[in-house]
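Field reference: "sequence" (input) and "structure" (output). Example, Lipoprotein:
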Amino acid sequence: MKREIRLLIISLLIIMSGCSYSTLNEAIKGDTPYKVNNVIHIEKVEGISIVLYDTLPERKEFPHLIEPVLGVSFFKGNDEDGWKNIGPNGWQHQENDQFTIYHDFFREYTHEGNLVIDIPVGFGEINNEDIKKIVTLEQGDRENYMDAVIIEKDYGRYYLASGRVTSIKGLSKNGEIIEQVDWETN
């Protein structure tokens, strides 16, 4: 009887502690639904860690994709209380000679349904070596382009921008527009 109670208590502790990880790196490795190939960048916004990564798609499902694809995940926590992936999770892929454009977001609501945190992000890979800067325009703005974070790795160049982006420009080192993409959002 004592042994059964002890096993029950140990089982409950394991179940309860299995929901978070002690470090962000452990959470990225263990709580991201895709096998993370490379962590490209981590950006903290409003207490949420945005993790930009690449992953290799499942070859059986996507035989035409042989290159890594980009994904973004959202984590909340700290090394004292633990880390947890709070979603959404996904990866995206497109072909573009200049730069790719992906969007994702994290939203947190109260139990009453009120929006507490809204973090939209734009991200992608820079494929044209002449593009030295990415600037983005937020929805509702017509002229105040903001610099995106540029991340340079041995395996590629990437960008990440917070905000509800509706325009992206890829600029040369002289500030000339190499590529501009505009769209409307609701």
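The chain has two helices and 13 strands.
The first strand starts at residue 36 and ends at 45.
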